[in-house]
Amino acid sequence: MEGEANSQAVPAAKRPGRVLMWLEQESGGGYYPYQVIERKIDTLEITGDWAQAEALLNVALAELERCRDSSFLAEACSRLGSLQVNQGRYPEAGRVFDRALTIFQDAGDRRGQGRVLCNIASIHHNRGDYESALECLKEALRHAEELGNRQGISRAVGNLGIIYYEKGDFERALEYYQRAMDLARELGDRETESIALGNIGMIYQELGDYDRALEFCSGNLEMARQQGNRQVISYALANLGSIYFEMDRLAEAREYFTQYLEISLELGDKPGQIVARDDLGITEMLLGDFQTSRFHFNQALNLTGELGNAENLAVLLANLGKLEVRAGQPGAARDFFQRGVAAAEGSGNLFQLSQNLYFLADFHHQQGEFQDAWRVNQRAIRLAGESNCREISLKSGVLHCRLIAGEDRAGAEAGLEKLLAGTEADRDRADIRYHLFKLTGLSAHRDAAAEIYQRLWGESGNIDYRQRLEELGAGSGNIQSGTCGETG
User: Fold this and answer.
1) Treating both helix axes as pointing N-terminal to C-terminal, what angle do 270-286 and 290-307 enclose, rounded to 10 degrees?
2) Both 352 and 429 in a single domain?
3) Which side of the chain, N or C, has fewer Cβ within a 10 Å radius?
4) For the chain, what is the domain count?
5) Is residue 32 scored above 80 in pLDDT?
6) 429: burial class by Cβ within 10 Å (0-12, 13-18, 19+)?
7) How confident is the model over 321-340, as pLDDT tens digits?
8) Measured between alpha carbons, how far is 159 from 196 in angstroms, rounded to an integer?
């Protein structure tokens, strides 16, 4: 949403032409039109000088108050609120957005109402309140469609796509993103087109089509650099880093995430800093640098507490749990996993909740707490199905088979074979082969898993693959068929 660092938002609609209103220069000796000031603010936002942009807006607001021009006052409030959202200052932003909305409502300005409703939705989104965000965006879309305001439609549908993406409804999200991009092209709105490209790329990442994801997100970065908008550039870098992370190209992912963090720090974009540090934390963890990983996670956790970003909190707590497991601290890991579930419950995001539940269930299984693992995993399976979370449907399905292996070995083996037949991703196939070997002791499964892990380890440097290779005794010939068995 507008000013929202981890969602690649559709930018604000271009404002309709007006008769210029002149404001007295604060230092005296001349007059400046508010619309000229707005253009300067546009430039400052693009180049990342948010502090100067906010200072100019505050001067303009004081003059508009004095001149009692309510229409421009509402526009200035909306602009100020957007800057505050960028910095994670949600209570302040909420107050100025409410004021702008009231002014637009009193004036019967439905275009203005639509713009502010999109801005208010961005606060709900950052706080994980997706239903409230949807209500605002649907009302904004209704205003735009009834007015025939194509710029407003483009903005509203693009932001609706973001919410459906967060909820795991990728088909609907793609529909809205495509509509936003088509409208942007018709209107010649290159910035919105660029952002829509990145958003569509993220859909293809979720669907596992990394070549198309890279194509769209590379186009997003190229266009963003041409336009010079620092925040949009940072979004594009984050998207590319995410794709390389999913492709297990961790060194490249770290490079993009580092650039994302650097720009977010320069801008004072606190929501962006949360996501960038979380991305770097998980990447450094998989590369084996637990100290740097913990530093980034803790920095992100502090900012999340400051801003109240519920969804970010659920992700961060789960990642901290994973770190503590690898660091051999099960007590701390348990606390983080449980808190992560509670945070996801509070956000109402079933897609995220299914992930947090799976991580907790897997932890219970590692600790030999099989009844708790079964109970939590069953809920993860159900919610993953309801929210279309494909990754967790697969992972929780594997865990289900492992849990039933003690009582139904044949059923567990059949279940894993079925999951293997339905997946194409190498790391998922290696994981299933690994568990099939542990269940059956068949060297064919061991050798197939080891071959994939050897290649993945060489390409990514992910320490999890190295550990699996060690467990499989790859190349050492010290694992005999039939010596391993999964227990539930």
Assistant:
1) 160
2) no
3) C
4) 3
5) no
6) middle
7) 999 999 999 999 999 999 99
8) 10
